[in-house]
Design goal:
The protein has 14 helices and 29 strands. By secondary structure, the protein is of the alpha+beta class. Helix 3 crosses helix 5 and helix 12 crosses helix 14. Bound molecules: adenosine-5'-diphosphate (ADP) and magnesium ion.
Length: about 575
């Protein structure tokens, strides 16, 4: 239908009850922009309507080189959503009546660049998936405002966001190149025997505890790798060598005085599984994509996890080979998180003393003398960290400023000294020789790979009230799955609420499509589907080719983490 058809339809329903807006659902050819009205909200105060704006890729002048491989296309889509957010802010003048009238939005990202449903680029068309509050006076249709919104503002948003001009084209190229560069650096880690790389000049600290933007000002110390730990990877944009710190596979210890930048380095590494926007400061900090941050999380749920490598028989004879609890302690939660991560394929663990349970990390000689090993269920991490790598190939990067007991275990020891990394490996090893720790290694049995678990399908349900599937996300760490709240506060590598939403729907997809097999196999299938079909059909009620809702791609580890924390879920060990 045409613009004039939409306009006369809107005039026809002017002042009618809000539900009359349902009549305008459909597709409208507005000349250089096609407007799709996919979902009309039921009420001016309800969640806003879902619309799409589509332009022709060639007519918009979008350079095909901006999306000629997967990394570049994902980057371009992420970029266009950001541009549209900026344009919406400039063009759309906000309230056009009651409730959410006139509020226009797009689900663009933060410092990380993620595969997301907010924008789509194909050879034929470019599309923005937006939300808009259809204008109302009280609860009746405001045609004049709706015409201005749908026929003036939104086409302008599409044109200004998607039609390439000189300036925009240069910025788009820089954005896409920066992202592709990161993917290229990350792809070199494995063959170089590295689990992470931090390029010289990187800016790791963030503006504040509440802001993920880079810290700025004269006191910021850019990262520079010491010669002995420096490697050169091959950059793509610009082509040529990139010097930086290479964190090798094995056991890496980050030591140093308090407030010298240890946790800041580890935080950058845990975010390095994602790509970052130009200017973030961490554009050349890349980490093994299978790295998982492990932290203590007392109070969390644990379902049938074999934590016995770390925690032996508990008081009252409770065994730990298939440990279930609704209220984990710091040490049991940390043990479970390690086993769960490895179960679904983690190859690097990231730990920080700040977020670890002390009794899980260390047990020194004096404590060993006082509390007999038969009275201590915990095998501290220090006694397993070496074996994790030697037996299972799982590397660890660990911040530990408080105990030298790890010196003997570490392949590399990096000291953060006033925000500068130094290689103190030789000294740490010499000290370990000179001052032998009097502690005994306390392990009950050799470390073995975790048992695969299977999901009991009927124990996962997103049903609430009359709805079969009701999934809400209030914040990046707050998922409500059916009637169950899932606390994801300890899942630090979730970075975007739309990832959390995708995690919720991914759990529903696991329930629906569960064939026989283990959790790891189910995640393999889910990821293959994401690769093939994208995220559009995560919501089971969305039809193909419609506005899919707001999703950003989560990793398998975060999907598993949510399942592992879902209090209703039962998993069975297939040992
Ligand atoms: P640690 O874990 O060693 O105690 P943190 O990593 O928490 O220290 O850092 C302490 C403070 O120093 C933080 O406020 C952080 O933002 C700041 N900081 C970290 N790295 C740098 C840097 N390279 N330049 C300037 N400030 C930094
Ligand atoms: Mg710290």
């Amino acid at each position: 239908m045409s613009a004039s058809a939409l306009e006369s339809e809107l005039r026809r329903i002017d002042r009618r009850g809000y539900r009359a807006y349902k009549d305008i659902a459909g597709a409208y050819d507005l000349g250089d922009v096609v407007l799709f009205i996919d979902h009309v909200q039921g009420d001016p105060f309800a969640a806003p309507s879902k619309l799409r704006l589509r332009v022709d890729t060639q007519r918009a002048g979008i350079d095909p080189a901006l999306f000629d491989n997967r990394a570049r296309r994902v980057a371009l889509e992420d970029y266009l959503a950001r541009v549209a957010r900026r344009v919406i802010h400039d063009v759309c003048r906000g309230a056009r009546g009651s409730g959410k009238s006139g509020a226009v939005g797009i689900d663009a990202g933060g410092q990380e660049v993620l595969e997301r449903t907010a924008a789509v680029v194909t050879e034929d068309f470019v599309e923005l998936r937006i939300t808009a509050g259809l204008p109302a006076a009280g609860r009746s249709v405001l045609a004049r405002e709706a015409i201005a919104l749908l026929l003036d503002d939104l086409p302008a948003v599409a044109r200004l966001s998607l039609y390439a001009d000189e300036l925009g084209a240069a910025e788009a190229r820089r954005f896409v190149d920066t992202v592709e560069d990161q993917a290229h650096l990350r792809a070199q880690l494995a063959e170089r025997g590295l689990v992470a790389f931090v390029a010289d000049g990187s800016i790791l600290p963030r503006a504040s505890g509440a802001s993920d933007r880079p810290l700025s000002g004269k006191d910021v110390v850019p990262f520079v790798a010491p010669d002995s730990l420096a490697v050169e990877l091959e950059g793509l944009h610009p082509p040529g060598p990139v010097r930086g710190l290479g964190v090798r596979r094995g056991v890496t210890l980050i030591v140093g005085g308090g407030y010298h930048g240890k946790s800041t380095l580890l935080s950058a590494l845990q975010r390095g599984v994602y790509d970052h926007v130009p200017g973030d400061g961490r554009e050349r900090v890349v980490t093994d994509a299978r790295s998982v941050k492990i932290r203590a999380e007392d109070g969390r749920r644990i379902a049938s996890v074999d934590i016995s490598p770390f925690i032996g028989a508990l008081p009252q004879g409770r065994t730990t080979t298939s440990f279930t609890t609704d209220d984990a302690s710091g040490s049991t939660s940390q043990a479970a998180s390690i086993v769960e991560a490895i179960e679904v394929g983690a190859t690097t663990l990231l730990l920080d003393e700040d977020t670890s349970a002390t009794n899980f990390m260390v047990r020194d000689a004096r404590m060993q003398a006082l509390v007999h090993r038969d009275d201590e269920p915990i095998t501290p991490f220090v006694d397993r960290v070496r074996e994790l790598f030697d037996a299972l190939g799982v590397s660890t990067v660990l911040v530990m400023g408080g105990s030298g007991d790890y010196f003997d275990q570490a392949d590399t020891v990096i000291q953060m000294d006033a925000y500068a990394p130094r290689d103190v490996t030789a000294r740490a090893h010499a000290i370990a020789e000179a001052h032998a720790t009097a502690r005994q290694r306390e392990v009950r049995a050799p470390l073995t790979a975790p048992h695969p678990r299977e999901i009991e399908r009927r124990t996962i349900s997103a049903a609430r009230g009359k709805r079969d599937v009701k999934i809400d996300v209030r914040a990046v760490d707050r998922l409500t799955f059916g009637t169950t709240d899932v606390d994801l506060g300890g899942v630090e590598q979730l970075v975007d609420p739309s990832q959390t939403r995708a995690v919720g729907y991914a759990l529903e997809a696991l329930r629906r499509d569960l064939e026989d097999g283990t959790l790891a196999e189910a995640l393999d299938r889910l990821e293959a589907r994401f690769d093939e079909d994208g995220l559009d059909l995560l919501d089971p009620f969305v039809r193909a080719g419609r506005h899919p809702g707001h999703f950003a791609r989560p990793r398998r580890f975060e999907i598993a983490a949510a399942l592992n924390r879902l209090r209703s879920a039962r998993l069975v060990s297939r040992s």
